[in-house]
Inverse folding.
């Protein structure tokens, strides 16, 4: 276990060096990734550690964001809350709203809990457009990052380091929280609430506390977003925000500590890169989620931790002779699938239908090749790649299963 | 970057190289930061089609600065957060002009991002051309020198709508304002009240209702009926408009509707005969303006596959105005965005239905508006139905213009 501090140190070093390593557009993506990671961590404290699935975390994220924008405009980056300390405003409002919302929602568990969180978030979402003074109109409230402590906060690099500082601090605190008795009790809440009550703990107070802490860190993430985009808009209160953090956390793996953060960072990066390349990136995102849930139910990070933690019996380790063909099969199938989806998307697009209206089907140029939509070859090639890849994976799996049976 | 843009970009490079001496000059880069994926994409794709069409025209006419204008597309993912990210990416890629239109939330974010960028990077300014975000505050409280709006706003829409309906003799004296309860609906309601004196009507009741949540408008229609209103002025769009009109038709309401967005593609197909006789005010109609309008509509259809509708005409005219402004700015090694902005303030073009210019005080476009009625007699049918929009009255640019908002205090470059 000596490896872990070394890995953490390495990761922090890489994060610190990012502004020198990537382009300015990617630096913006990095800021978004950090914010998404923190939000997912806050969400997973509640969902992963304490086992309470919330459908309304956009509310606390959004409240933190609005609190920060108002604080930015009120203090002008001076006095009590200079620019670097502004996230505290978001965290404070997140905490207070979390106590209130947590008090009501943690009175119930399971589906009912989820429904209450959803209802509270929708309440806020429905209310916000009516309160122009607090939530701005459709065009939102904007603010300006003022210079403070000798920093201008005008460039993305300064914003990156500010975000990085707060995100690392928050993740560190969340880690420490896990080690405290409170963190252990949160696990108990997930595993067996009734038993915890019989042991004499006040589970409602405990649930409220965990909820409030989760909301506080969500508010902090919202605050960092406000600092980054220098504005807040009631669009941030939409259900969509709550769903994205949920998907991100589950893709990463909600029960391993850094799983949600890595999942959120990966998916944010994925969106950043693919949304300019293809119109149907949301479809790919959905496909990834479905595949992860079907084949890696512990999440990407959860599965990796499981594979490499050495908890498996001796014969169950990773075999390169199986892993490599499996990965190759997945890659071939993915390539075939992507080509197929992209071709379909282009043929169905409005531009292309306009071109094809004359009865001709012009060639489609894609990935440096030209494709003839009329020819069967165009469709057979990606289809056979998809089939071939899947067959390869299935074949390897079948052989692995047979071998396991023979050794058992 | 999608393939077509990349092709355009590389074509631009080749042309720039072949232009020899002029190759050293910087090409003008326009970044379209639009919603190109997800549930709101249909409007974003209309803007894209119109921008591609007009940038193509500018390039056919020789581009700018000795090189074709480069158009790059960015997907703002439907929200302000994605928009900020894409604006930054566009600036990092060297964009000079950002164009966008499909949401006031995104527009509010972009216009502020552009303002802050320009404050922090003097000498490297960028320009934001707002193609269709109609919130009043964008040319009011949030107005600034580098934001230009080429679409109407609530005041222009309602002002022309009531004037046109009055001329057609259908406005009556009792007007009901039915709007969605958020900034746009409030803008339309305010504009309806403001126009009451000049158009000679009384606003009998104002209602602000939930946005896109109501399934049954029957209670609202009952209230309209109770007031005995002659006309309902509404800024509603999408479902809120369709369901309202359907409920009204179901209850046998006699009042006519004056709307802002009845021409959104799909609306007429959905509403069918229910929409007949109702009004809308927009910046263009292919039937208004004679042969020139028809020629424009046909040419647009030839390039994009459909007639220009909804947000497309204003987008095309707005970028034509930009093209006109570019001709006034001398070619230089570095593109001077402030000079383009100053030229844009002075530019005037002739569209098929009249002159189109930019007002220097608040950077709101000043252009003609066409008040039109859904009718089976229209020459250009929409949505494959037997209905289309029949022009009732064309208001010239001067007649359409709404006063400059007092809340706009613009800092001009010194």
């Amino acid at each position: 276990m000596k490896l872990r501090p070394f890995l953490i140190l390495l990761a922090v070093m890489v994060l610190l060096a990012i502004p020198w390593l990537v382009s300015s557009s990617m630096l913006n993506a990095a800021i978004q990734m950090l914010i998404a990671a923190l939000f997912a961590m806050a969400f997973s404290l509640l969902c992963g550690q304490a086992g309470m699935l919330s459908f309304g975390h956009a509310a606390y994220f959004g409240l933190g964001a609005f609190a920060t924008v108002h604080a930015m405009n009120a203090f002008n980056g001076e006095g009590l809350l200079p620019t670097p300390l502004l996230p505290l405003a978001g965290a404070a409002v997140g905490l207070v709203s979390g106590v209130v919302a947590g008090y009501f929602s943690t009175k119930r568990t399971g589906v009912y809990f989820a429904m209450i969180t959803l209802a509270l978030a929708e309440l806020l979402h429905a209310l916000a457009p009516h309160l122009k003074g607090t939530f701005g109109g459709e065009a939102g409230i904007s603010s300006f990052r003022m210079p403070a402590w000798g920093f201008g906060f005008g460039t993305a690099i300064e914003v990156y380091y500010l975000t990085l500082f707060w995100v690392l601090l928050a993740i560190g605190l969340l880690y420490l929280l896990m080690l405290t008795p409170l963190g252990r009790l949160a696990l108990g809440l997930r595993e067996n609430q009734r038993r915890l009550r019989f042991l004499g703990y006040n589970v409602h107070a405990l649930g409220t506390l965990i909820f409030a802490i989760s909301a506080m860190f969500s508010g902090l993430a919202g605050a960092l977003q406000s600092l980054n985009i220098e504005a807040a808009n009631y669009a941030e209160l939409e259900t969509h925000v709550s769903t994205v953090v949920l998907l991100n956390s589950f893709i990463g793996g909600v029960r391993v500590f850094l799983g949600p953060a890595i999942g959120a960072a990966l998916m944010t990066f994925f969106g950043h890169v693919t949304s300019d390349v293809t119109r149907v990136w949301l479809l790919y995102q959905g496909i990834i989620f479905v595949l992860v849930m079907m084949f890696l139910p512990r999440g990407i990070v959860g599965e990796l931790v499981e594979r490499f933690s050495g908890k498996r019996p001796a014969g169950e380790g990773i075999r390169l002779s199986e892993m490599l063909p499996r990965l190759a099969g997945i890659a071939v199938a993915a390539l075939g699938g992507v080509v197929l989806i992209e071709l379909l998307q282009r043929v169905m697009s409005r531009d292309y239908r306009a071109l094809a209206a004359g009865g001709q089907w012009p060639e489609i140029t894609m990935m440096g090749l030209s494709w003839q939509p009329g020819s069967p070859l165009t469709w057979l090639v990606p289809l056979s790649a998809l089939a071939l890849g899947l067959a390869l994976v299935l074949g390897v799996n079948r052989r692995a299963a047979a071998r396991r049976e023979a050794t058992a | 970057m999608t393939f077509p843009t990349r092709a355009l970009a590389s074509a631009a490079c080749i042309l720039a190289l072949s232009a020899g001496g002029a190759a050293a000059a910087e090409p003008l880069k326009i970044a379209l930061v639009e919603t190109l994926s997800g549930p709101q994409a249909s409007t974003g794709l209309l803007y894209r089609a119109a921008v591609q069409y007009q940038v193509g025209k500018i390039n056919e006419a020789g581009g700018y600065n000795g090189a074709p204008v480069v158009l790059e597309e960015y997907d703002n993912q439907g929200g302000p957060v994605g928009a900020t990210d894409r604006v930054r990416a566009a600036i990092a890629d060297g964009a000079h002009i950002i164009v966008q239109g499909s949401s006031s939330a995104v527009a509010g974010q972009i216009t502020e991002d552009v303002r802050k960028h320009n404050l922090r990077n003097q000498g490297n300014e960028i320009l934001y051309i707002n193609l269709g975000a109609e919130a009043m505050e964008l040319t009011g409280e949030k107005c600034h020198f580098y934001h230009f709006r080429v679409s109407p706003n609530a005041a222009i829409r309602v002002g022309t709508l009531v004037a046109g309906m009055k001329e057609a003799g259908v406005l009556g004296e009792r007007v009901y304002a039915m709007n969605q309860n958020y900034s746009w609906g409030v803008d339309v309601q305010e504009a309806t009240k403001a126009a009451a004196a000049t158009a000679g009507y009384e606003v009998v009741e104002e209602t602000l209702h939930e946005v896109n949540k109501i399934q049954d408008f029957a209670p609202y229609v009952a209230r309209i009926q109770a007031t005995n209103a002659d006309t309902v002025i509404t800024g509603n769009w999408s479902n809120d408009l369709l369901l309202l009109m359907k409920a009204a038709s179901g209850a046998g309401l006699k009042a006519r509707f004056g709307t802002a967005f009845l021409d959104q593609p799909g609306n007429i197909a959905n509403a069918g005969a229910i929409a007949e006789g109702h009004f809308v005010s927009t910046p263009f109609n292919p039937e208004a303006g004679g042969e020139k309008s028809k020629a424009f509509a046909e040419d647009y259809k030839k390039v994009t596959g459909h007639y220009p509708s909804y947000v497309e005409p204003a987008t095309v005219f707005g970028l034509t105005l930009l093209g006109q402004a570019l001709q006034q700015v001398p070619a230089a090694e570095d593109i001077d965005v402030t000079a383009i902005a100053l030229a844009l303030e002075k530019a005037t073009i002739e569209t098929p239905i009249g002159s189109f210019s930019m007002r220097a005080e608040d950077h709101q476009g000043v252009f003609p508006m066409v008040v039109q009625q859904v009718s089976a007699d229209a020459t250009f049918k929409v949505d494959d139905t037997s209905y289309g929009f029949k022009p009732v009255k064309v208001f010239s640019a001067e007649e359409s213009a709404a006063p400059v908002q007092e809340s706009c205090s613009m800092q001009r470059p010194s």
In short: Chain A touches chain B through 46 residues (CB under 8 Å). The mean pLDDT of chain A is 85. Chain A has 17 helices and four strands. The CA atoms of residues 248 and 380 of chain A lie 34 Å apart.
